[in-house]
Amino acid sequence: MHSTAFSHVAMAPATLKKTVKHEIHGVERTDDYDWMRAENWQEVLRDPSLLQDDIRAHLEAENAYEDALLKDTEALQEKLVAEMRGRIKEDDTSVPSPHGSFAYGGGFRTGGEYPRIFRIPRNGGEEEVLLDGDVEAKDRSYFRLGGADHSPDHKRLLWGHDDKGSELFTLSIRDLETGMDLEETVLETGGSGEWDADSHGFFYTRLDANHRPSKIFHHALGTDGETDRLIYEEMDPGFFVGVSGSRLNDWIYISAHDHETSECHLVPAADPGTAPILVAARETGLQYDLEEGGDVFFILTNADGAKDFKIVTAPVSAPGREHWKELVPHEPGRLILSIMAFADFLVRLERKDGLPRIVVRERASGEEHMIAFDEEAYSLGLHGSYEYETDTLRFSYSSMTTPDEVFDYDMRTRERRLLKTQEVPSGHNPDDYVTRRLMAPAPDGELVPISLVHRKGIALDGSAPCLLYGYGAYGMAMPASFSTNCLSLVDRGFVYAIAHIRGGKEKGYAWYEEGKREKKVNTFTDFIACARHLVAERFTSHDRIVAEGGSAGGMLMGAVANMAPEDFAGIVAAVPFVDVLNTMLDDTLPLTPPEWPEWGNPIASKADYDTIAGYSPYDNVGAKPYPPILAMAGLTDPRVTYWEPAKWVARLREFSTSGNPVLLKTNMGAGHGGASGRFSRLEEKALTYAFVLKASGKAVEG
């Protein structure tokens, strides 16, 4: 398939080749573009100006080439930004959440790029701004707000920020009486912390030299951060650690985990000096999470073969596994996602038959009921609560046609009260759109769900363009939720579709297992099957369908480009994890050891090496008719390093037989999430949508 939409107004950058040989398990590979990996990449994360000149020049040349080939879409991009911005309520705020005598919330001012944190008196009154993101971001080329957590005594705010995109956060403490930050700060953290019970200090995660969260410290207010007490250190490089707290503020949870195993330690929130208490020793494949419920812990776990998880209880005084008692048994195909405990109720969010649902259980009687919803496909979310002694549950609901709605639900009377509906200032009528849920047959007979939305009345004769989105990794389910941005495509006649492929948990935990490690190829063939089903059902045609995915979904894009290049009119790969084999062979990279349970360890296992080598997008580029491809990268990205998409693009351009353009856009001042401001992010989305429109044959003027 040859694209006529892109006029070659500029020559692609000439890319230097320096052949490097690697050998492992008796297999020798050559890599012509290994030189793009900066030896000082860790320093570059902290100071992007340290990137060596030849690599910087190459990335800037790629950016110039991308600019040239999409120059004719500049007016369209401006139009798309205006449209998407017009659907955002600029002075939007969250519904404040009550805690003690206050209610806390967040939101934006008109024209503001970054959120502000505020509180009001619990029963209403004047708003007090605790932190203004626009003020903090002033004179910074990049700014991202991390966690913002008020102390139990409501006198201070612990907040984190990242000013490079490298996810190395600085923690600051704001005195809420003066509005000023204390002089003490904590550097290179995970971005948030958890206050101790007395508001005298906080627990936080510190990142090591390889960007891995490996240590938990306690910082006492008024002391030098260099003297912070080490509470826990994880010695296994394959595990990450995190810290959180219970709603009753009695316990600090320290979690150590990879993608398939977890372990939890407890510290009394009122006594930070206590040695952490182990709940259940790590056991490969065993996962569990704790939720405090007064004198018991509710534990969500997959122990004893509960693949889709069950809920057990244990006394707070003896939380060890030998004391676990089953409360909600395992039910195959019903995946319990999360739980929340209140004084009189236990709430769980679960997924069955591909759809989420909320179940409320009365703790005293064990009686359960579900909150009912009507649409064919939708998304649900439980909102956190500061308070334990309450009958009120807050949740959100949306669908691909219904804007986000926030409800307070009385768990006792079963009455729901609509608190807020997402406003679309430029207008939105759900009745103008149709949302559908299809089932695409995979090559092995599995049925893969597809959620889609299109305008009512469009011709479904194969002529409609389509953007098909996919992810399919880490057990992450892609919600069928409302997106104002995609309306810019849908209102131009597109079908916008989400492929709920294996590797996620849309159809239970087994759906995840069937799309990882040695079964990873199912993720790719599922996505291709979804594209072909949409064509077979006349929603679109192969010369009109564009595929999109990011991060691990970018790996998906690389794989389907190799496996079925002629099935797509174009491919968008955002921060794509495409150099899988080289990355999994490099245990100095931040995420590599913790990623081995997901992809396999090609260093230790020849079988894992062969599996990854069989699909790794970079290693499987060949003489094929690739469609137009746009790859997006971030220079300070610690998750998918910039050189992965840069190497992939160079190799695609070298081997492609179609003559279609392969473009690389690197944000030289951002990381994995791209631009940091809510409006500057729209410019990146407009760029990708302009590419999508062009690749699918829609008029550039849009």
Automatic annotation (TrEMBL):
Cross-referenced SUPFAM superfamilies: alpha/beta-Hydrolases, Peptidase/esterase 'gauge' domain
Biological processes per GO annotation: proteolysis
InterPro entries membership: AB_hydrolase_fold, Pept_S9A_N, Peptidase_S9_cat, Peptidase_S9A, Serine_Peptidase_S9A
Pfam families: Peptidase_S9, Peptidase_S9_N
Domain annotation Peptidase S9 prolyl oligopeptidase catalytic: ranges: 481-698
Keyword S-adenosyl-L-methionine tagged: no
Peptidase S9A N-terminal domain: residues covered: 17-421
Key words, A-Z: Hydrolase, Protease, Serine protease
MF terms (GO), sorted A to Z: serine-type endopeptidase activity
Recorded family membership: Belongs to the peptidase S9A family.
Protein name stated in the entry: Oligopeptidase B
Biological source species: Nitratireductor indicus C115
